């Protein structure tokens, strides 16, 4: 990334030339300063008024904030507008607010300009890090304008060597100075052949350190799972010499490279000095991953024997990705990557279709294959839809590929099936070689197999139970609550009995953590969960930890009035007895929102959670430590 102080002047366009964003260019160099200062004045007056987008006010205690809802943008389809032209367009009100604050536009030509005005009210933090939370943008130019006339320019992206970034991090980032109570205009220009995704956010140094630490931990866990799967299946392939394992290893390696590239880690660790590889890695790794996926499906499903026509089509798809991978080394990024990403859709659909055909032939392992790969293929589809701007950028869409591919651990069941086949083949050899020892050796092998199956079943059962409960409070977790609540909701509809929700939030819990420490806070959460279980158990309530200091409970057979009485009983029980943590006695109170579920609503769970949450916020707004209904 290059950083330099610049004067408010751009090279004059040719005489008589048309302004890229509208208007006539000036050919006289003597008018350059006039235009530049006029643009700054118009920019300052239009910043707060353009399209009704208010400036971003950074509170005194804020440590990070996204810019989306305070940002306007302009699409420069030609990609040749300069800074003065962009400022004039801003002053003319031609910048538009981001749709729902989302800066995801899919594959687009030209450049995008983004503008926001920031006023920092945090006197302790005047140096912030502007992070573009998408790793594959080619070039990013950041222009900062201060009231005293000072102008600063930063440039970055994956067309610059990695070591030139402000902070060695997988996402492009730039240091910006935000003086206290001083409005600063930030104008960002992004031009890229990749998907146009520009989620911008500001972080203090401490907040960014925490963000990078947590992000690296999550990514490390994910790639740790991939490595464990890789070496486990590598051992199985070396022992069994089954082609399915080889192509599985090929695919998992290529797909890991895809995610390594998309997360910006490839540019950070593998090719920090090669902008060519940074440009070509995405389409190449996508092609390799699809080749491995198709070939793995062919060998696992044994298409050559079960469906010859499907096998020929699969080989044709493999040939297509081989050719596309070769062509991607020569084609521009904005051509190769959309083609490779779009081709993932028919590849996914074809594997699903082939699997369904094989399932209908009675091949049982194909059912396991379909189940195991279903979530992975869904995650891949979400990634492609996000790249083309068909889905908004959220946690699930951004990390859908990682979530789906992590579920490939279910393929270990397939490995057990091959192990069983190996034992069976060995038993057949024993039958041929030594009939006299047949019964004894078959019994031994069968016993080993049964023991292995029993151990696997026990492990699966323990894993299933562990996945249902929250590790700290031993209450059910949010995922299990959703599944169990759907059953309760179905019973309520069938029996025409009401069902109510309690949304419970501990008051001022952050103050407890800040005052006594997180270990004491954990004791308070455990004490709260125990109190809730004691109070709500007589009512057959389904209780779960919803997240952080929030809990949720479903009360089957109760209308709004009865549920409100139970909520008040719970509130008083929490208030009556302080939490004991060592020698400390900490008073704990809770705000509770109550809602009786509308059984006729199509999306009962989501709508009920939303209304219960609104009731909770009403309780918090009315002074906390109370029960409110909506």
Walkthrough of the structure:
The chain is of the alpha+beta class and 630 residues long. The chain is built from 19 helices and 21 strands. The protein has helices at 32-47, 83-91, 205-240, 243-262, 265-270, 275-301, 303-306, 308-328, 333-360, 365-387, 395-398, 400-406, 412-433, 438-468, 478-495, 509-516, 518-536, 560-576, 604-621; strands at residues 2-5, 56-58, 64-66, 72-76, 96-97, 104-106, 111-120, 127-132, 139-145, 151-156, 173-177, 183-191, 196-197, 200-203, 499-506, 542-547, 550-556, 579-581, 584-586, 590-596, 627-629. Strands 1, 2, 4, 5, 7, 9, 10 and 12 form an 8-stranded mixed β-sheet that branches. The radius of gyration is 30 Å and the shape is globular. The model is unreliable at 1-51 (pLDDT under 50).
What's this, in brief?
By secondary structure, the chain is of the alpha+beta class. It contains 19 helices and 21 strands.
Topology readout:
Layout: E1 2-5, H1 32-47, E2 56-58, E3 64-66, E4 72-76, H2 83-91, E5 96-97, E6 104-106, E7 111-120, E8 127-132, E9 139-145, E10 151-156, E11 173-177, E12 183-191, E13 196-197, E14 200-203, H3 205-240, H4 243-262, H5 265-270, H6 275-301, H7 303-306, H8 308-328, H9 333-360, H10 365-387, H11 395-398, H12 400-406, H13 412-433, H14 438-468, H15 478-495, E15 499-506, H16 509-516, H17 518-536, E16 542-547, E17 550-556, H18 560-576, E18 579-581, E19 584-586, E20 590-596, H19 604-621, E21 627-629
Parallel strand pairs: 2-7, 20-21
Antiparallel strand pairs: 1-10, 3-14, 4-5, 4-7, 6-13, 7-12, 8-11, 8-14, 9-10, 9-12, 15-17, 15-20, 16-17, 18-19
């Amino acid at each position: 990334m290059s950083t330099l102080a610049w004067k408010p002047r751009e090279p004059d366009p040719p005489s008589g030339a048309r302004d890229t964003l509208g208007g006539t260019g000036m050919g006289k160099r003597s008018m350059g300063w006039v235009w530049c200062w006029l643009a700054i004045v118009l920019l300052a007056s239009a910043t707060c008024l353009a399209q009704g987008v208010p400036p971003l006010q950074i509170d005194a205690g804020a440590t990070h904030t996204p810019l989306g809802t305070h940002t306007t943008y302009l699409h420069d389809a030609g990609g040749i507008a300069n800074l003065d032209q962009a400022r004039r367009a801003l002053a003319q009100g031609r910048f538009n607010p981001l749709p729902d604050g989302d800066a995801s536009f899919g594959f687009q030509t030209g450049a995008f300009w983004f503008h926001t005005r920031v006023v920092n009210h945090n006197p302790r933090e005047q140096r912030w890090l502007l992070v573009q939370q998408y790793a594959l943008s080619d070039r990013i130019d950041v222009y900062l304008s201060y009231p005293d006339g000072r102008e600063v320019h930063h440039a970055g992206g994956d067309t610059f060597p990695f070591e030139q970034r402000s902070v060695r991090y997988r996402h492009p980032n730039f240091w910006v100075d935000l003086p206290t109570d001083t409005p600063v205009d930030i104008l960002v220009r992004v031009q890229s052949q990749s998907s146009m995704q520009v989620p911008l956010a500001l972080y203090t140094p401490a907040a960014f350190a925490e963000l990078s630490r947590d992000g690296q931990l999550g990514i490390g866990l994910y790639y740790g799972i991939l490595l464990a799967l890789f070496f486990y299946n590598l051992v199985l392939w070396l022992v069994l010499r089954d082609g399915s394992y080889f192509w599985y290893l090929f695919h998992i390696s290529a797909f890991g490279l895809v995610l390594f590239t998309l997360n910006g880690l490839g540019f950070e660790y593998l090719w920090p000095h090669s902008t060519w590889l940074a440009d070509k890695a995405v389409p190449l790794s996508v092609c390799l991953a699809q080749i491995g996926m198709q070939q793995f499906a062919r060998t696992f499903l044994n298409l050559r024997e079960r469906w010859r026509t499907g096998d020929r089509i699969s080989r044709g798809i493999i040939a297509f990705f081989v050719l596309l991978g070769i062509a991607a080394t020569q084609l521009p990024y904005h051509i190769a990557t959309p083609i490779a990403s779009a081709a993932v859709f028919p590849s996914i659909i074809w594997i699903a279709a082939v699997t369904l055909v094989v399932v209908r032939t009675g091949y049982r392992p194909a059912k396991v294959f379909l189940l195991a790969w279903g979530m992975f293929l869904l995650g891949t589809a979400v990634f492609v839809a996000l790249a083309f701007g068909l889905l908004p950028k959220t946690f699930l869409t951004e990390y859908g590929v990682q979530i789906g591919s992590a579920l490939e651990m279910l393929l270990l069941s397939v490995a057990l099936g091959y192990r069983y086949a190996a034992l069976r083949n060995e038993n057949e050899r024993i039958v041929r070689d030594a009939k006299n020892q047949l019964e004894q050796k078959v019994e031994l092998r069968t016993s080993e197999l049964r023991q292995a199956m029993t151990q696997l079943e026990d492990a699966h059962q323990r894993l299933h139970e562990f996945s249902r409960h929250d590790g700290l409070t031993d209450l059910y977790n949010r995922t299990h609550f959703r599944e169990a609540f759907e059953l309760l909701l179905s019973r309520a509809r069938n029996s025409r009995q009401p069902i109510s929700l309690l949304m419970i939030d501990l008051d001022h819990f952050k103050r407890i953590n800040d005052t006594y420490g997180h270990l004491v806070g954990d004791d308070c959460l455990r004490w709260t969960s125990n109190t809730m279980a004691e109070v709500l158990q007589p009512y057959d309530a389904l209780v779960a930890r919803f997240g952080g200091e929030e809990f949720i409970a479903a009360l089957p057979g109760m209308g709004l009035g009865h549920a409100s009485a139970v909520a008040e009983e719970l509130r008083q029980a929490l208030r009556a007895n302080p939490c004991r943590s060592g020698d400390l006695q900490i008073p704990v109170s809770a705000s509770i929102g109550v809602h009786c579920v509308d059984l006729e609503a199509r999306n009962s769970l989501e709508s009920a959670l939303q209304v219960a949450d609104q009731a909770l916020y009403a309780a918090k707004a009315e002074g906390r430590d109370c029960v409110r209904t909506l």
